[in-house]
Amino acid sequence: MSALIDKAQAGGFDEDVLLIERYLGGDETAFQRLYAKYYDKVYALARGVLFDTEEAADTVQEIFTLVYRHLHRFDRRARFSTWLFRVAVNRSIQQARRLKVRPKSTELTEAIGHEAEEIAVVDPKIESALSKLSPSDRAALVLFYWEDLSLQEIGESLGCGVNAAKTRLYRARERFREIYEQEREI
């Protein structure tokens, strides 16, 4: 089956769709491969929204449980990663609202996980400003800057169109800038 996946990738076919088909056909290991492939990205997204490592870890488990239960509903014409990110964003924001989490002081490098090695020095005022943003603003910024998604993909992940995603990202940047400038004055 591994050779089939390699051929699928070479031909431009999405490996995720093949794994989904295998899972729906009864192959539990196929879902485990999807989980392993996307765990770090989903965790980084949840961590960026929730700003709490324990809550993020719990939320990631809930996200993958939801995906596991509802994978049969996935529209195979779309990209699995976009659908997964939409589930992750929605669940992370719901969790943040439910807990009414006031973000704890946290290292930004911890929030972005494995990509932390790429950032040499993080300004504590950046961390503070991010922690004061709403979960939905942090989600837009995480999807754009850490997950490097296009506006189209962000829109699909947030459940809106490209123009709305662009507007949300612009407004999140502006709110971040305002908070950051206030932090710099202190």
Secondary-structure blueprint:
Layout: H1 2-10, H2 15-24, H3 28-50, H4 53-70, H5 80-99, H6 108-111, H7 124-131, H8 135-146, H9 151-158, H10 162-185
Helix pairs in contact: 2-3, 3-4, 3-5, 3-8, 4-5, 5-9, 7-10, 8-10, 9-10
Number of helices: 10
Tally the structural domains.
1
**Shape field:** elongated
Q: Give helix and strand order, one letter per element, not per position.
A: HHHHHHHHHH
Number of strands: 0
Commentary on this structure:
It contains ten helices and no strands. It is mainly α. The chain has a single domain, classed as Rna Polymerase Sigma Factor, Chain: A (Orthogonal Bundle). 30% of the residues are buried.
Main attributes of the structure:
single chain; 186 residues; disordered N terminus; mainly alpha; Rna Polymerase Sigma Factor, Chain: A; elongated; 0% strand; 10 helices
Please give a quick description of this structure:
This protein has ten helices and no strands.
